[in-house]
Amino acid sequence: MAPPLSGTTPRRGWSIAVVLIGVFVSSLDLFIVNIAFPDLERAFPSAGLSDLSWVLSAYAITFAAFLAPAGRWADRAGRKRAYLAGLVLFTLASAACAAAPSLGALVAARTLQAVGGGLMLPSSLGLLLPLFPPHKRGAAVGLWSAMGGAAAALGPPVGGLLVQAGWQWVFLVNLPIGVAACAVGVWALREIRDESSTPPDVLGALVLAVTVGAVVAAIVQGESWGWTSGRVLCMFALGTLGVVFSAVRAVRHPAPVIEPAILRIRAVALANVATVLFFAGFGAMILASVLFLTGLWHHSVLRSGLEIAPGPLMAAVCAVPGGLLATKYGNYVVGFAGSLLFAVGGVLWATATATDVAYVSAFLPAGLIAGAGAGLALPSLSGAATLPLPPERFATGTALVSMCRQVGLALGAAVVAAVLGARPDLGAFHTAYFFMAVCGLTGGLALLGIRDSASRRVPVPVAQGAAPR
Fold it and tell me: How far is the CA of 322 from the CAs of 138, 342, 346, in angstroms?
């Protein structure tokens, strides 16, 4: 057994860089695709907003469904192997997205891209945390979260620039980054696996995808189909049956998608609930802001990207200090403060914006406040959901919280598509921003229930003994 790379070595530095690049690319893709939404509307004029929303939702749903099985498989087969396989698939699927001749083909390619991201993300934190000594792992979580914040900050302006050459370039940009990261990762990363881990629950993952997909479809199509129509009621019923099936299977399967043993840890369970709520608001904020600036204020995609960027940049700046503050004061304190600021930003957007352009006095202040709140909340959510677990369960715990994140994003985008699809006027945008604020506040209240239990590692009665190889 080789010693962990927790010292200061060139190989350790390259390992950290490769892992963070993967997190950055997968997060960058989310924000770039959002800013490309108006161009996608023009590229596929026969598709409505509800149809186009599946470019976002299909990715989020598939990503969510595969995260937990991928985390389990990463623990069993090796985190390096899972990470690099995901990075390769993500890169190839990005090329397929750029070459998609129709909306259906684009959604299918996005689904494959999500499978790659689902393999890559849970392995990333599982590879990163062992590279840091225990007393610095809170900062490592903050650094991991900061990559998402940096991608969020760069995504809108970079996406705005890329779509000037065509929406395909928001996917092609992933190719050189993915190839370079794969080449370095083969050499730098070290394998970590838990050979006693049991096989993942593939059926449970498929049921989860169908469950979330049914609920998202019901929300997105509710206005056009009719909220009391047979199709919408069947979608909600299918989602309910999926939840029941997943709960029963979680108890009976040796390696379920959602492990009851992990969720018995109060801090972990509450952190995952908070993550779903917070990211529902986050997903609503992203899509609503892009459509507000391009649709209601009629700004160009490039200008809108630049106008959105300060908020995510603030999130990136606050993420690492947020991780350090969470280590000192507790995830629930810092996470609640961040969620509250995020909600305040939503309320300001909902009350201060109007049809008349007022970027500096109305849109920008709300974006900065919401961005600062997100920067404080994100590392606390990730830390509360993973740090109480033993090291050999980091990948599985990361998969679970990332799954909740994607479920929240899908639900948030679905709500915005439903609200704006009916009547995309100022009142509808204000409703979307109020929804964002409510989600942020309830997510913060869920974090308050953690207290300081989030800082205590609790043994999990599942597979033990991950060994670096």
Answer: 9, 14, 20
pLDDT tens digits for range 185-223: 888 888 877 666 667 677 887 888 888 888 888 887 787
Side-chain half-sphere exposure of 132, counting CA atoms within 13 A: 18
- Token look-up 């924000």 returns 31
* pLDDT on residue 462: 47
Contact between 385 and 272 under an 8 Å Cβ cutoff? The reply is yes
- Picking from 294, 417, 420, the residue whose alpha carbon sits closest to that of residue 42 is 294
For the chain, the maximum distance between any two Cα atoms, rounded to a whole number of angstroms, is 65
What is the pLDDT averaged over residues 400-416?
Answer: 85
pLDDT tens by residue, 288-325: 998 999 989 999 888 988 898 898 889 878 887 888 88
In 163-265, alpha helices (H): 169-172, 174-188, 202-225, 230-252, 260-263
Q: Is the pTM of this model over 0.70?
A: yes
CA 263 to chain centre: 20
The domain segmentation of the chain, as residue ranges, is: 11-459
Residues 6+ apart with CB under 8 A from 229: none
- CATH 2.40.50.100 for domain 11-459, yes or no, is no
Average pLDDT, the chain: 84
Q: Where are the beta strands (DSSP E) in 254-311?
A: none
Beta bridge mates, 193? 467
**Phi, psi (rounded to 5 degrees) for 383:** -65, -45
Whole-angstrom Cα distance, residue 369 to residue 382? Answer: 21
Those residues whose C-beta lies under 8 Å from the C-beta of residue 127, and which sit 6 or more positions away, are 15, 19, 79, 80, 83, 189, 192
The two structure tokens encoding residue 452: 């300081």
* Tokens read off for 204: 């449970």
Length of the chain: 469
Q: Is residue 385 within 8 Å of residue 458, measured between CB atoms?
A: no
By the 10 Å C-beta count (0-12 exposed, 13-18 middle, 19+ buried), 17 is classed as: middle
> Does residue 176 contact residue 2 with C-beta atoms inside 8 Å?
no
pLDDT confidence band for 107 (50 / 70 / 90): very high
CB 168 within 8 A of CB 36: no
64 membership: H or E segment, kind and range: helix 49-77
What Rg value do the Cα atoms of the chain yield, rounded?
21
Q: Which CA distances in Å does 372 have to 148, 342, 345?
A: 14, 7, 9
Q: Which residue has the tokens 């996917």?
A: 171
Between 3-7, 24-28, 145-149, 371-375, the lowest mean confidence (pLDDT) is in: 3-7
Per-residue pLDDT at 197 = 61
